[in-house]
Write a structure and sequence with these properties.
homodimer, alpha/beta, Molybdenum Cofactor Biosythetic Enzyme, Chain A, Alpha-Beta Plaits, Maf protein, 6-stranded mixed sheet, 14 helices, 18 strands
Chain lengths: 441, 441
């Protein structure tokens, strides 16, 4: 690493590949890089995406290098004739690309490990522009590199990475970001804390937190990853004092959002529920109608879930609700399959059948068909059964809105949140984007 | 619409929004637009993404208008102070923006329907640059517009759309694309057919179809949407003759890919299985261990699935496999939970328990823990039970690779494909990216 620091105040991103401009692949790399750069205090001024054409790639580089201090590109480092990044960038920089013997040998070794000889093409991947500093790629053949390109009195740096996300991400985290941070004289970076919320809409969250974080103190942003919305507080500063300010702001956020927060950090409702069940040493069974197995699928996405999740029933037909779960035909006839009464019997029935501590049930109208005036599409009843519930089971009905997929996912989130609230002794869930309509049996 | 046609040979896309350059939202709009433009025969030369800064938005417009005949932008049409597209584009075009009275009234009416009065801000959304032609937005408040911007001897057209995908997509399809097609003297467009495949890797598909579609005839592209890969054949030409050429090429593709194709068009494995079950009038039950409910969740994503899917069991613990499904303790002791023997008993057991025509079962090691030398992570057994299977049930074991989520999803796809193959009387699935290791009991 050079002793001469380069001031980095702005960044630009380039994504290269025909599949991107033909709409075959969605560009997730630039989003990922932008997010990571922001955590170092750098905002991305532009993202340019071009296909595998030399003149367009050259235009993207010239434009970006003219407007930003560091330009990070992904794509175009493969072994085929369409992979043009190094050749084009070398041209723009006015240097030759030379074979890096160490990288060439590494690529040969990789193929040897797979019992194959290296195809001639792959040698191109070891071509590095003169003056470039290799960025190691532990998970693929193509090394990345960093190249400072004097332009007038400016010295922007090109950072070239492979397009495969799985390869690019560790290279960014382990080599690129630390290098950028080391170069910046502004040693401040963003320290963040993320709050996972469920129940409030994004505008309600926005209103709740209005005026809490002053622009001079930091940033507040929301990211909707249905069915949850995360609120992220970011504070700009240096280690120690910034973290202390972050703690104070976080306490204020918790005060304002209260029960809408179900977890902190990068996690999910199913992982949160799993942690609580494991801590309590309690087991769970699921009885699903409209969600069709989604609650079980989500629970089992968490490694180690076999310690608390025993299994359950997908009771998609009324026959199965009755004959396998033991829902009384009278209940089905009087209240219907989509009712708090039926949900309670499903939850109690599966708890008994599976022999778990807690049973949770969902039954509803996922749509688009199947609705009635009485129970339109999106009507969903959720119930919990447990030994510490005096009546044996409690249920509530919600009126949800959306597509079939939306309603199923939301219903599964409501069911998981009910388990969480039961374990923590919290009030029942009030949904902003779905009314609670039941009598709360 | 002007009588004077504008020649359109190239297109560029602009995506506007802080959330995009800060990495909070992934840009799916440009991918969607690029894909749709390609079907009209237009390739996108660049996609530029910028944040909500006037000078950057202006740079993006100037650059794109200089390099393309039509520039489509999404974002920046909201009611807030950060929404800068119209103001900025008007400046670049050297015109004023004027209030469109019809659109202003429409926005007032929308709020009135919701029982609210229109916030002052929203009036900004009715500002249209002088010379602009409104593009109606049926699903939101902000109209889009088309504006031709004479630049030297060129006449590129700016097309401005809202950033909300659900609003943008119909506007693109119903107004923008037809307008573009009407302007192009080259009346050729792409006619496409999509083949959904499962079992072959992308490079194996590529090899199978090598040399089939000559560049002069059309294009062949692959899109991986795990766990399936779609192969799309596109032929450039005019209605009638191009469709006839497409039919001939499609027949060749079917000939080459054979059994790897499970459906044509934009569909899924679960929808395909559903159509076959419904056509046969047969019912299905699922017994899931490692997939945890995912097979049921996928089946029930299909509207009308209650006609053929009765439900099933998530037998996540061995206790449940034994006590609820009736898997013999001897089988579990001798062969283990992850075995073809256990899978067969699970499939037969759930068929009996639910009373369905067909039972399907999954049992495996999803990882990352739980593997052994004998049965490493990714070992999955799948079984089918049906009256027309002499022994009652058949099973095979596969060795899959990947993350927990990858293995679960792949296993669910294998299970669904087994049902499909059984209903069609096809050979068992040979997986390219997972070896078939069982004895095929």
């Amino acid at each position: 690493m050079s002793n001469e620091n380069i001031e980095i105040k702005s960044a630009a991103v380039i994504s290269t590949g025909d599949e991107l401009v033909q709409g075959r692949t969605v560009d997730t790399n630039s989003s990922y890089i932008a997010d990571k750069l922001l955590s170092t205090g750098l905002e991305v001024t532009s993202v340019i995406t071009v296909g595998d054409y030399p003149e367009r790639i050259a235009w993207a580089w010239r434009d970006s290098l003219a407007n930003a201090d560091v330009v990070i590109s992904t794509g175009g480092l493969g072994p085929t004739a369409d992979d043009l990044t190094t050749e084009t960038l070398s041209g723009v920089a006015g240097v030759e690309a030379e074979l890096d013997e160490e990288q060439a040998q590494r690529i040969r070794d990789i193929f040897a490990t797979m019992g194959r000889s290296m195809p001639e093409n792959n040698l191109r991947q070891a071509l590095i522009p003169v003056g470039g500093v290799v960025i190691p790629n532990q998970l693929g053949t193509a090394p990345g590199y960093r190249l400072t390109i004097p332009t007038g009195d400016r010295r922007p740096t090109a950072i070239v990475l492979p397009g495969v996300p799985r390869e690019m991400m560790p290279m960014l985290e382990e080599t690129v970001l630390p290098w950028i941070v080391s170069q910046r004289s502004d040693k401040r970076r963003y320290f963040a804390r993320t709050f996972q919320t469920f129940g409030l809409s994004e505008s309600a969250l926005d209103e709740s937190l209005a005026g809490l974080v002053d622009e001079s103190e930091g940033r507040l942003s929301f990211r909707a990853s249905f069915p949850q919305i995360s609120a992220r507080v970011m504070v700009l500063g240096e280690t120690g004092e910034a973290e202390s300010r972050l703690d104070k702001l976080s306490a204020k956020v918790r005060g304002r959002l209260g029960g809408a927060i179900f977890a902190e950090g990068n996690t999910t409702m199913e992982a949160t529920v799993g942690r609580l069940l494991a801590a309590d040493g309690r087991t769970l069974a699921t009885a699903e109608s409209c969600t069709g197995g989604l609650v079980g699928a989500r629970l089992t996405d968490v490694p180690g879930s076999s310690h608390y999740y025993m299994g359950g029933l997908v009771a998609y037909s009324n026959d199965v609700k009755e004959k396998v779960l033991g829902v009384s035909p009278t209940t089905l006839a009087m209240f219907g399959a989509v009712s708090e009464e039926t949900a309670c019997e499903m939850a109690a029935g599966v708890r008994r059948m599976i022999g778990a501590d807690i049973g949770v049930a969902t039954t509803g109208v996922a749509g688009p068909g199947g609705g009635s005036d009485d129970k339109p599409v999106g009507t969903v009843a959720v119930a919990i059964s447990a030994a510490d519930i005096p009546s044996g089971a409690v249920a509530t009905m919600y009126q949800l809105r959306g597509t079939r997929e939306w309603i199923k996912t939301l219903a599964s989130q409501v069911a998981l949140d009910w388990i969480r609230r039961h374990l923590l002794g919290l009030d029942p869930l009030e949904l902003q984007f779905g009314r609670r309509v039941g009598r709360g049996r």
